């Protein structure tokens, strides 16, 4: 099984989640009025200040807004500033074939990685041409195999779409369409500690049967928590850090860029 570091099972590991960057081929590309490349750069600068030693970066989907090779190349170049191994998973805005081209000669798209005393499994919940997500049978089989082959490790499972309600009525129809399939697998394995996703552009942290369920801010626009209809929040771009301890305890927090001014432009190209 590929390992990304020299950490032993007695060590703790630091994982950084970067999500929903929505990059364009053009440097001046904007989403609802926000320059997504500039906001990603500000988040990366914040990560560099706060996290001097990162063991793994997880980019949890919607890396690109326009699906261009240039947008993925830009993401790869920008995140190189963090000098840490990384893994990518696709979101509903991504183009998997183009992602694969951008990730050539790298481990960016590997779906299972062992890190210290943890195993991280990265699933593809994206459906071509669809905003909602679905975990195909081969993804659920990959998950079951990954969990069953490492019973002694603690497990973190990552994908793009939310598998539970996050309290935003407008997002209810665009989450994971088969969460019961996911939880049927997870419930069989007591070593599962946490599930992590993107897509919702906001912080979320709940417990389900002793498993931590978490979502994180976007590196660009934020969605207003608890909103009935589509609404962009005033929260700043951010990221999530996760400290994976050898005994299975997970410490985590969300950090946001400070001094970030942004006026949403609902008249521009929508989300």
TrEMBL record:
What Pfam families does UniProt report for this protein, alphabetically? Metallophos
Q: Name one GO molecular function term.
A: 3',5'-cyclic-AMP phosphodiesterase activity
Q: What is its EC number?
A: 3.1.4.53
- What domain of life? Bacteria
Keywords, comma-separated and alphabetical: Hydrolase, Iron, Metal-binding
Ranges where the Calcineurin-like phosphoesterase domain occurs: 16-202
Describe the family membership recorded for this protein in Swiss-Prot or TrEMBL: Belongs to the cyclic nucleotide phosphodiesterase class-III family.
Xref: PANTHER family: CYCLIC NUCLEOTIDE PHOSPHODIESTERASE CBUA0032-RELATED, PHOSPHOHYDROLASE
Q: What is this protein called?
A: 3',5'-cyclic-AMP phosphodiesterase
Q: Which organism is it from?
A: Pseudomonas nunensis
Q: Which gene encodes it?
A: cpdA
């Amino acid at each position: 099984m590929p390992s990304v570091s020299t950490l032993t099972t007695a060590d703790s590991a630091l994982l950084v989640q970067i999500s929903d960057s929505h990059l364009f081929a053009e440097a001046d590309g904007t989403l609802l009025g926000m320059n997504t490349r500039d906001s990603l750069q500000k988040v990366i600068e914040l990560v560099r200040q706060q996290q001097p030693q990162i063991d793994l970066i997880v980019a949890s989907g919607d890396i690109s807004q326009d699906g261009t090779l240039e947008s993925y190349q830009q993401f790869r170049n920008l995140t190189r500033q963090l000098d840490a191994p990384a893994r990518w998973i696709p979101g509903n805005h991504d183009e998997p074939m183009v992602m694969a081209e951008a990730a050539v000669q790298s481990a960016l798209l590997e779906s299972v990685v062992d890190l210290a005393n943890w195993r991280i499994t990265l699933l593809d919940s994206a459906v071509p041409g669809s905003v909602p997500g679905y975990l195909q049978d081969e993804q659920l089989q990959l998950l079951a195999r990954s969990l069953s082959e490492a019973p002694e490790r603690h497990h973190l499972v990552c994908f793009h779409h939310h598998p539970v309600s996050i309290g935003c009525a407008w997002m209810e129809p665009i989450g994971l369409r088969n969460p019961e399939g996911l939880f049927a697998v997870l419930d069989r394995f007591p070593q599962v500690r946490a599930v992590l996703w993107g897509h919702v552009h906001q912080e979320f942290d709940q417990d389900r049967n002793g498993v931590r369920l978490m979502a994180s801010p976007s590196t660009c626009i934020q969605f207003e928590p608890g909103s009935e209809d589509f609404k962009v929040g005033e929260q700043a771009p951010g990221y999530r850090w996760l400290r994976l301890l050898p005994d299975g305890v997970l410490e985590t927090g969300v950090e946001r860029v400070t001094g970030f001014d942004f006026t949403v432009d609902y008249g521009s190209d929508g989300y």
